[in-house]
Input
Amino acid sequence: MSQIQQSIDVDVPVSVAYNQWTQFESFPQFMSGVESITQVGDTRNHWVTNIAGVKREFDTEITEQHPDERIAWRSIGGNAEHAGVVTFHRLNDTSSRVMIQIDWQPSSVAEKVGSAMDVDELQVKQDAERFKEFIESRGQQTGSWRGDVEAG
Output
């Protein structure tokens, strides 16, 4: 299992950063390799990715979510095994820190080599930087979902 950790400071209030992160269908606008995400319920999403020529489709389930604090998920079904958590930290009234942790299981030889060479970590870092540009250029979220999902 590979683990990636990344954080980025964004010049928006914590609620704006969190609210945007709940808008999964907007992820292709700042996450390279993500072709589409379709929200199929409050806690379920269907992903289509194409990373380094490897196309995958899978569903994710939100396993824990607390407004302005955290969103945790895991994959279910499909051909991708991963889980993660994004936490949101208030730095002051106008800025926040977004911390990302992803655990995933590389399956192909290319994925295993890429993970060993930290290509996956670089990808998450670049996606975090694109999220920063996306949310700061807008100054506000494209929507929000303030539901609470208890762990377990």
Q: What stands out?
A: Residues 119-138 form the longest helix (20 residues). The radius of gyration is 15 Å. Residues 2-23+59-138 form a domain with the Alpha-D-Glucose-1,6-Bisphosphate; Chain A, domain 4 fold (CATH 3.30.530.20). The chain has three helices and seven strands.
